[in-house]
Design a protein that fits this description.
Elements lengths: L2 H10 L2 H26 L3 H5 L2 E12 L23 E7 H9 L2 H4 L5 E16 L2 E13 L8 E16 L2 E11 L13
Parallel strand pairs: 1-6
Antiparallel strand pairs: 1-2, 3-4, 4-5, 5-6
């Protein structure tokens, strides 16, 4: 849908439809805020409950295992001389999402990380009464463990396409496709919107 077509659709909406759209967007954004809060505070079950039972999480990340150990202690190597290969993981359903949130790769950041899943600007589309999409940037930041230093040690920037579905009157995440900024397939996440 082009910008002109989107503007035309918006102009054709009634006040009630516009209010509904704003309410759904607010609810979906709150889910993303909870996503970050629950991930940061190791509230694993609450995090998984943000998703539909058949949800898919498909993301790419730079593998930093050649630089950080499991405790996030960096090697003495110059990070500009190490390759960080791009990897992909896909998790489907509640059981696999539990594995995702409890993975050592995630656990090593807990207590010193902040997940920001709904950075501005974002694209929102209400597809129908029971499905919506948000495309937004996200960032994960982690400070050094020693003395709770404010020194930033780790960061990961991505573009996300979040698909939400209403289940029994409650909005849930049905799919998250996350691509590392600058990767070849990041631009695909906004196609068709």
């Amino acid at each position: 849908m082009s910008v002109h077509q989107t503007e035309q659709v918006s102009q054709d909406l009634t006040i009630e439809q516009r209010i509904t759209m704003l309410e759904v967007e607010r609810e979906c954004r709150e889910i993303l805020a909870r996503y970050g809060f629950y991930a940061d505070h190791m509230l694993h079950d609450e995090w998984v409950n943000l998703f539909t039972t058949d949800a898919v999480m498909d993301f790419t990340f730079y593998d930093d295992s050649n630089y950080f150990d499991d405790d996030m202690k960096p090697s003495s190597a110059d990070p500009t001389t190490i390759e960080f290969p791009l990897k992909r993981s896909v998790f489907t359903g509640s059981d696999e999402l539990q594995v995702c949130i409890r993975a050592p790769r995630h656990e090593r950041l807990m207590g010193r990380a902040q997940h920001r899943m709904d950075a501005q600007p974002a694209i929102f589309r209400l597809l129908d009464d029971d499905s919506a999409i948000i495309v937004s940037d996200s960032v994960v930041l982690a400070r050094q463990r020693a003395n709770f230093s404010p020194t930033l040690q780790y960061q990961h920037y991505c573009l996300n396409r979040w698909t939400f579905r209403k289940v029994d009157g409650v909005w849930k995440i049905a799919e998250n496709i996350r691509r590392t900024m600058g990767s070849d397939d990041a631009a695909e996440l906004i196609s068709g919107l």
